[in-house]
């Protein structure tokens, strides 16, 4: 039954939801107390900011400044919570400073109201093969996850359960700088780990189909999973075993 539903969903041509906000992407990566992250927003009216971050070794703080005025202090323990907070003012510059520990920022978005949203980038299998699965997933998620965190201060579970874990793995794959033969194993492992996240959340995603604005997201994610399994020549029932084998090979 699930295979029939998957086939039906993959055939859908769904319209993206309307998001009445310009999303300004901030820097992501590892930052320490001596670092600052500065984003020039050119006097735009900033409605809210979204940050996903974790403390690398211990707990600390990220301070968020709007034109020199502190608008938020974020605690960063050793896991990756999401923070969404309102600014609601015209701002020239957003600045992040770091206290007590180095922090890893997984996502940093600044939302400014606009009348219309830009067309979304859809998943493209050939583009994934030409670059990497991680790069394609990053492109897809950067374009779609804004709708799951911008409409209210409640972050959609689809982001926390599926998109954010996928993004973390994709970032890890993209950052890999190992030797060529080892990198190939890493890319295969990361691709299969992404497929596993999608597979493990299929039931949840099927239950979200009553909300038609999520059809295009679910369609793309299921396509990614099927294409990864086909490209790596791994059967879905062997997914967990293959992941464990690759992890052992890379130890």
Describe the protein's architecture and organization.
This protein has 251 residues and is an alpha+beta fold. The protein contains nine helices and seven strands. It has two domains: 84 residues, Sandwich (Jelly Rolls); 134 residues, no CATH class. Strands 1, 2, 3, 4, 5, 6 and 7 form a seven-stranded antiparallel sheet that branches. Helix 3 packs antiparallel against helix 5. The chain is globular and about 55 Å long.
General form? globular
Give Rg in angstroms.
19 Å
Distance between the termini: 39 Å
**Whole-number count of domains:** 2
Assembly type of the chains comes to single chain
- The count of β-strands is 7
Strand content: 25-35%
Low-confidence stretches: 1-19
What fraction, in percent, of the residue positions are helical? 40-55%
What class do helices, strands and sheet pairing give? alpha+beta
Mean pLDDT: 78
Question: How would you summarize this macromolecular structure in one to three sentences?
Answer:
The protein is α+β, with helices and mostly antiparallel strands and 251 residues long.
Keywords summarizing the entry:
alpha+beta, globular, 2 domains, single chain, Jelly Rolls, disordered N terminus, 251 residues, seven-stranded antiparallel beta sheet
């Amino acid at each position: 039954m699930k295979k029939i539903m998957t086939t039906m969903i993959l055939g859908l041509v769904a319209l993206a939801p309307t998001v009445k906000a310009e999303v300004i992407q901030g820097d992501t990566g590892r930052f320490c107390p001596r670092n600052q992250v500065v984003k020039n927003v050119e006097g735009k009216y900033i409605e809210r900011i979204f940050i996903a971050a974790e403390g690398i070794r211990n707990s600390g703080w990220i301070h968020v400044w709007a034109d020199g005025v502190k608008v938020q202090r974020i605690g960063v323990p050793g896991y990756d919570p999401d923070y969404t907070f309102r600014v609601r003012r015209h701002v020239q510059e957003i600045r992040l400073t770091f206290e007590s520990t180095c922090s890893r920022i997984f996502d940093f978005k600044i939302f400014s109201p606009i009348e219309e949203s830009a067309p979304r980038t859809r998943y493209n299998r050939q583009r994934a093969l030409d670059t990497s699965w991680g790069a394609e997933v990053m492109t897809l998620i950067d374009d779609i996850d804004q709708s799951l965190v911008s409409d209210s201060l409640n972050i959609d579970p689809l982001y926390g359960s599926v998109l954010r874990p996928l993004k973390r793995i994709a970032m890890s794959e993209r950052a890999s700088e190992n030797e060529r033969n080892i990198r190939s194993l890493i890319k295969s492992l990361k691709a299969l780990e992404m497929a596993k996240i999608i597979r493990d959340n299929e039931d949840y995603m099927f239950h979200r189909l009553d909300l038609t604005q999520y059809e295009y997201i679910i369609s793309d994610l299921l396509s990614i999973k099927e294409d990864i399994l086909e490209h790596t020549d791994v059967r879905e029932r062997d997914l967990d075993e293959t992941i464990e084998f690759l992890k052992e090979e890379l130890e």
